[in-house]
C-alpha cells in the first residue's frame, strides 16, 4: 500500500475510534451522575406518586407550597455531594471501557494511536502489528450505560418508588396529567389557595324541571373539589350552565370536552360565565384557573326523545254529532301542540284537513286526552277518511301515529226543506264549477213558503243564496253560499239550538285558551262561558218543552236543570286556575265539555228511579250490617277467651248482656230493611231470611251466656249477610246497565235530582261503573267524598250547591 493511502486509512480509523471514545465517555459520565443522583430522583418519584393519589390537591395552599419547598431542598442536599465529587471521565478510561466491553487484550486502541519512537528496520513489522490491532479496534462496539444500582441500593428501595408510580397512574387514570401538573404547580400564596364557587344548571323551560345546584358558595382547593359526585349529574340537552367564581386574579376557563371558554371578569377577583350545554357527548364540567383545576363535575346529557301520539280508540260521534277524538301523548317532558290530519280516501295531502288538538305535560307518564270537533258542516262529512295524529314537542321534534281509517259524522236532518237544502249544498261542494245548475232547485224550494211555515228569515236566506248563485260562479261564492244553506238548514231543524251549541263550544275553547295563555283574561272568558251555558240550557228547555211527553196526571215528566249548578262548576274552575292548578281546571273543563257534547233528553219513570234508589240504600244497609256483625263477632270471640281464662283462674265470668243488646239491634235493623224492600216492591236476596234466623240463635246463645254457640250463630249470619250483599250488588249493577243514558247532561224529573247533581257537578267521569257510587254517596241523605282527599272540598261544595238549588 502506498504511504499516502496508508496514512489516509489510519486517519479514518482514528476518527472513527474517537467518536466511539467520546460516546463512551458520555456513558461513563451518565453512570456517575445516576449513581450519585438516584436518591434525589427516587424522592422526586415518591412526590409524584403522592400527587397521582391526590394527596397534594387535598392540602391547603400553604401546606402544598411547604411540601414542594422541602422537596426542592432535599433534592439539592442529596445531589450536592455527588455532583461536587463527580469528575469527568478521561480518554484512557473510555478506551479501557471499550476494550473491556469487547473483551480484547493487548490494548488495540492504544496501538492504533501510538507511533514508534525510532524508525528502524522494524517499521514494516510495526505497521503490520498496527493494522492487525486496527482491525480488532474497529470491531469494538459501544455498549449502553451500566445503570445498575445493586451496589448503591442493596435494599432495592427504588423498586418501591416504581411500584408506587405504577399504582398511582392506574388510580388516576385519564386524570394523571392534570394531577401531576397540579402537584408541581403549588400556589404561590395562601390568598388563592381556595376559591368560592356558585354553579348551577338551568334545564330548558319546556322540561318543567327545577335548576340543579352544583355548588353554592362552596370553597374548592387548588387541586380540585374535595369530593366528587359518585354519579354523573343528569341534565337535559340545551341546559344553561351558570358559574360564578370568587378568588384568584387570573381569569378562569370553563372546559366542556375539547372546547374552552374564558370567564368574564366582574371584579378584581370575581368572574362569571354562562354557557349552553349543546353537546350530547359531554362527560364533565371542568373549571381551570392558572393551569390548575378548580372544580369538576361528571355530567350525563339526556337527549330529548321525539314525542309519541296514538289513538286510544277509533274516533266516535257524540250525541250532538261532533267527532270525539280519544288520543294519548307521550314525551320526555311534554307535547307543545298536537294535530289530526284528515285525508279523504283517494285524496292527496293537498286536500287534507288539519285539526288542532291540545298537548300537555307528560313527565308523570302518558296522558290520555279527549277532543271534540264539529265537522258536520265540512265537505268531508259522512266520508271515509284516513286520520293521522301528529305531536310536536318544544324542541321541534315531531311524532306521528299509525294511520286510521274511519267515517266522519254526518248530520241527519228530518225537516224536508232542511234535507233538500243539505242535498243542494252537497251537490254544489262536490262540483263547484257546476254549482250554478243548482240555482233552479233553490229557486223552486224558496217559493214553497208553506213548507217552511213562512219563516221570513229562511225565505230571505234562500233568496239571497239564489241570486248570489245566479250571478257569481267563483269558488269563494260557492263556499259562502254553502255556509248560508247550512245555517238555514240548522235553523229549520233545531231553531236556535244549533247556534247556542256553537256559541257554547266557542266559549269553551276561549276559556281553554285563557288557561293556556294569559290568565288575566280568565274572568272575561268565564263570564262569557256562563252566559253561553245559560243560553244553551234555555234552548234545551225550549226543545224539551216541545218534545217531552206528558204524564197522565198532567205533570211534565222531565224538567230543565238549574243553571246554578253549572255556574258553581265554572266558579270551581276559576278557583282552581287562580290557585295555580291549571291542570285541575282543564280536567274539569273536559268534563264540562263532555257533558255538553252528550246532552240529551231521556225519559225514565219516577217509579223506576225510586226503586233503583231503594235498592241502592238496601245495598248500603247490607254492607253496614255485615261490618257491624263482623265487629260484634270479634268482640264476642275476645270476651269468650277472657271468660275461659277467668274460669281457669277461679274468677267470675263477664256477662254477655251488652253484646246481646247489640245483636238485638242488628236483628231489628235487618227486619226494618226487609220491610222497606217489600214496600218498594224489591225482591229480597234469598240469604237474608236465614241470616235473620242465625242472628236470633246468636242472641239466644248470648242470653244463656254461651259464647261458643253465639260465635257459631254470628259467623253463619255474617256469611249469609255477605252473600246477600253480593247478590244485591249484582242486581243493582244490572239495573244500572239498563239505564237509558250512559253519561252526559240528562234532563230527568224530581226523583232523579241527585243524579242530575252528580252528572253536573261531581268531577268524576260519569261512566256506568261510577253511577252506583253516585247513587250510594251523592243520592243519600249525606254526601261522602268518594274520589279522594284532594277534592273533598269540591264534594262539600257540590252538596251545598245542590241543597240550595233543590231544597228538601
UniProtKB/TrEMBL annotation:
<dbReference type="Pfam" id="PF13779">
    <property type="entry name" value="DUF4175"/>
</dbReference>
<keyword id="KW-0472">Membrane</keyword>
<keyword id="KW-1133">Transmembrane helix</keyword>
<feature type="transmembrane region" description="Helical">
    <location>
        <begin position="62"/>
        <end position="80"/>
    </location>
</feature>
<feature type="coiled-coil region">
    <location>
        <begin position="711"/>
        <end position="738"/>
    </location>
</feature>
<feature type="transmembrane region" description="Helical">
    <location>
        <begin position="37"/>
        <end position="56"/>
    </location>
</feature>
<dbReference type="InterPro" id="IPR012683">
    <property type="entry name" value="CHP02302_TM"/>
</dbReference>
<keyword id="KW-0175">Coiled coil</keyword>
<protein>
    <recommendedName>
        <fullName>TIGR02302 family protein</fullName>
    </recommendedName>
</protein>
<keyword id="KW-0812">Transmembrane</keyword>
